[in-house]
Amino acid sequence: MTVRTMLAMETITTDDRALVRVDGEIDLSTAAQLRDLLVELSERGINSVDIDLSGVQFMDSTGIAVLVAALRRCKHGGGQLLLLEPSASVTRLLHATRLSRVFQIGA
Question: What does pTM read for this prediction?
Fold first, then answer.
């Protein structure tokens, strides 16, 4: 039996900023979807991105890698990456990896 994880994303963009709402699980089977979306935003010149993680029930190291790469792209483009309302499980992961010190986290 194969267990398939689901990821839903909604993006709202202005001229130079995007809000990405993520719901579901960010893991090996779904992280590429988020990565592709964030790369596309960067390629469109949107270098300031707010990612709403309140609906993310689970995230593994592949999700962390996607967020770190997005942070680098945003900073390289002169923008910023803001993680909004990470769920309790994502918050624990950010603290355990000490990335809560690296990412800007907002409510």
Answer: 0.92
